[in-house]
Each structure stands twice: as structure tokens, then as C-alpha cells.
Amino acid sequence: MTTPHPAAQLSDRIAELLADPEVVASAWSSRPQWRQSLAHGAPGIALLHIERAATGRGPWEPVRDWLATATKGPVTSGPDSYLHYGAPALAHALACAAQTRPGSYSSALAHLDNVVAGDTLRRCDEALARITRGDLPALAEFDAIRGLAGVGAVLLRRAPDGEAIHRVLGYLVRLTADVKHNGRALPGWWTMDGPSGTPDERFPGGHANTGVAHGIAGPLALLALALRRGIEVDGQREAIRAVLSWLERWRDGHAWPYWITPTHLNDLNHRPLAPQRPSWCYGTAGVARAQQLAALALGDQHLRRDAEQALATTLADPKALAATTDLSACHGYAGLAHIAHRAATDALPRNAARLRTAAALLLDTAHPPRTNPDEQAHHLLTTAGPGFLEGAAGTALALLAPATGTTPATCWDACLLTS
Fold it and tell me: What's the predicted TM-score (pTM) here?
């Protein structure tokens, strides 16, 4: 049995500090809507305790308490809900709990499944109508955080044979086709939004986003994950290839820019790469994992090797790592360690060894030798908060599998589209 890395002690201590909702909930007392937020609130913290209970590392009581907190009031559905908020967020957390205790939460899950599927069908109708009009999309239409790629991750686990996931995949196929806008051919995911999803004067001509959180790597990952599970719609393989080709066009060495603007289209030699953090949300780690998943779905050994080498190389790049400044699952060292560990499981032998080495070094950076886990856990809660995406719960969860040398027991990271 592999000896756990000391970072496992940090994960344990964070979980202990996050055991009681009555103590932690004050962190979002001014934002009661975070009760049903996967990114910031109760469902995300529940994921940590669910995974710990599933692996025998923690008790079930915190799971029950956090899920009770998440569900104690009305659950948001409709256009204001998405993977990280409302009905889809709760469906993901409860589905992970049901993996650990089969049969639990069955009536609540059945209700949420119907709500999510119905909302998704309406969103697909709206998105396809937008395509027919010839308008450009908003990021929140398709991305992993707020859009159909993220909701699709829930459907892929909960209703893989249902109409809704097939409609999402069909929509994403349409999204990958080039469009004409003001006389110029643009990728179908070109948006007039800024990267934040709102108007941004720094992007007067819009942009095409490459990341997993808000860009085309999220839809790529979903299309690939579905294909690996034998769920396929017309044009799906071609859509995957189209996204891969576009990403290859803009790749610079082992890295991808965060976004492409009209400036880059006008000057193909203009590469917008300063040292960038190679994170899940934006950057090489997320994009390379999506490419690896696509390669596995397509059976493309060359692409698989290329994606794995890009990931291993960037995680050993001092300049890229120097741009990483926190521990979070979203864009920190814990998230990078988790992606390296996940990718190593699927990698060719030589690349797997490089990725395992990278994961070990990332764990050393996240929790340096002789660091007091109690002090570090308290500091993290104070500075980053308790949440999943950028806070302590997500850090603890992302550290768990690489620090213990195990495979996650639940599908918690499906909400990141990494599995």
C-alpha cells in the first residue's frame, strides 16, 4: 500500500474544520444564496465529506448535515440554475452521495433529474434558435460553469440514455461549426462577451475562449466523455476533430493562450503568451486533459501522446508554475496535482511516470515538508474561504486522491469535466 503524502494530513485537517455547517455557514451569512452553490457553499463542501466517507477516511454525519443545509430551502431551477448553482448542483452532490450509499436520496434525485432535464431541453431550444438567427453566443450558453457543457456533465451521469443529453451533444456539434459575422469566418463559440461573461471594453471585437471553465475545452471534454461512454450523435466525432484542429492552430509549444481576439486573427504570428498559470479553469492543464480525453475517445494514440507530453512538460515548467499562486482546485497547486494524477491513470507508460512525478512535486509545493497542517488549514480557511471551486473544501478534495495514491471513489470531479 502506498504511503500517503503529508498533504493528506492537510486534507484531513481541512475536512475536520469543515465538519459542522453551523460553524462554517457564517462565512456566507451575507450571501444566503450560497446555500445551494456548488462553487461556494454547501453542495461543494458536501462533496468533500462524501468522498471521504466513500473511501473510509471520514464519517457520514457531515455528509448528512451538509446536504440537509443545501436542501433546507427552495431549490433554484430554470434559467438561473446551472451546474454550479441550484438544481444541477444539488443533483451532482446527491448523485455522489448515492454512489456511496446506493438507494439514498432516490426520491429527491428523481425530482431533480426531471427538473434538470426539462430545463436543459428549454435551454437547448433557445440555443438552437440563436444559432438559426445567426447571433453569436454568450459564454453562459455553452460553458462548463454556467452553460450547457456543465449541465451536460450531470445528465451524462444521471440520464445517459435520455433525450436531454443527446440534445446537448447535438447543440455542441452545431456550436463547433464556423459562422460568418461581419463578413468574417469565426468559430461558432466566438462571443462578444468578455472572458467574465459580461461586456468588456478590452474586447471590443469579442473573443474565442480556450479554457475549460468558460471556453471551448469544456464542450470538447463533454463530447469526448460522452463518446467514451458510447453516447454519440451525428457529427460528434467531426466536432471533436474541429475543436482539436482549432486548438492546434493556436498552440505555442506546450501551452495555449487563454483566448483569441481579432488582433490574433489579423496577425497569425501574434502569440498572446506571457507566463501563464497552467490551471484547470484556463491554461494548459485543463486543455491538455480535455485533449487527452478526446484522444482516448477517438482512439488516437498520436494525439494522446501529444496531450500527455504537453501536460507533463508544462507542469515541470518553472515559469508556468511561478504564475500559480494558490492551492485551489480551480487554478492552484491542488487542482494541478489532481489533474496530473487523473491524467497519469489514463496515460501511456512513459508519460504516466512523468505525470506521477509532477503530481508528487505539486503536492510538495502545496504542502511543503515540515509544514504544520493545522496552521496551514486555518490560514487557508481565513484567506480563501470554505468553498469548493476556489476555497478550502476544493483544495482538500483535489489533494485527496494524489496524496493517497488512489482513484476517486465517487464522480465528484465530473463537475470539472476531468472524468
Answer: 0.97
